[in-house]
Amino acid sequence: MKRQRKDLVEFLIRSSHQLRAPPIVKYTALSLFAERFLPSLATSMKQRNQIGSWLLRSMEESNLQLFALISIWISSKIHDSRALSVKCLKSLGDDLIRDQHFTTKDFVEAEVVFLQVLNFEIGISNVAFIFLEELFIQFKGVAKVGELMNFEACMDLMDLLYEKEETSLLFSSPCKLAASILVTSYVVTVPKQQWEFPVLPWVKFVTSYKEDDIGDKVKDILMHVFEPRN
C-alpha cells in the first residue's frame, strides 16, 4: 500500500496540474483523499461492505485513481466560482486511467461513495496550505530575506510529505506543519550567509509553538526530503 499511496498522490498532483487547478483546490483534494479517504478505506472493511458499491469491492489502482479525481472535483466545487465539469474530469480520466474506462454515471456514483466514506464530513478549515499561505505572506511583510524565498518551494515540500503515510501524519497538526514547512523552506532556499532573520523566534511569536517543537519537525521534513529514493 505504501508504494501505491505514493503513486496515487503523484497521480492526484499530476491531474491537478493538468486541470490547472488552483493550489487551494489541489491541497484540499489531497487533504480529503490522502488524509481522510485512504485511511478510512485501509481501516474499515466493514464500512466498505455497508456502502456496498462495486467501486469499493476491490482496491484496484484504477478505482482509487477515480476517487483521486473525485477529490479534485469536490474541492473544485468548494473553492472555484466555476467548478470543474464532470465532462472535463472524465476526459482526463480517459487519458490517464489505463486499466478501466469510467462513464459519467460512474463519476457521479463515485462522488456519492467518496462522501459516504467520509460520512459527508468535508470540513476544510484545517488544510495546511491555508495556514502556510498566511504565514508566508506575514513573513515576507516583516523580513527582507523573505524576498529570497520561493512559495513554489514551500508547495514542493508539502507535496513530498504526502508521499508516505508516516510523514503525512504531520498534517494532523496543520498549523504547526505550515510553520515547519516555512522554516524548512528558509533553511533550504536562503543562502546560509544571509540567515540573519530570527525565523524560529518569529514563528514562535506568531504561532505560540515552541522553537524546539518546530525544530524537530523541520528535522523530520529534511530527513524525508533528502532521503534516497528508489
Summarize the structure.
This protein has 230 residues and is mainly alpha-helical. It contains twelve helices and no strands. Helix 1 runs antiparallel to helix 2 and helix 8 crosses helix 10.
Textual characterization of the structure:
The chain has helices spanning 2-18, 23-43, 45-51, 61-79, 86-96, 104-117, 128-142, 151-161, 165-168, 174-189, 199-207, 211-226. It is mainly α. The model has no long low-confidence stretch (mean pLDDT 85). It has 12 helices and no strands. The radius of gyration is 19 Å and the shape is elongated.
Provide key terms for this protein.
230 residues; mainly alpha; 12 helices
Strand content: under 5%
Name the quaternary structure. single chain
* Overall helicity: 55-70%
What is the ordering of alpha helices and beta strands?
HHHHHHHHHHHH
Class based on secondary structure composition and strand pairing: mainly alpha
How many distinct helices? 12
Q: Average pLDDT value?
A: 85
Ranges where pLDDT stays below 50 over 5 or more residues in a row are: none
Q: How would a textbook summarize the main sheet?
A: none
Integer-rounded radius of gyration = 19 Å
Q: Terminal Cα separation, in Å?
A: 16 Å
Q: What's the β-strand tally?
A: 0
Organism: Hibiscus sabdariffa
InterPro entries: Cyclin-like_sf, Cyclin_N
Domain Cyclin N-terminal: 3-122
Protein name: Cyclin N-terminal domain-containing protein
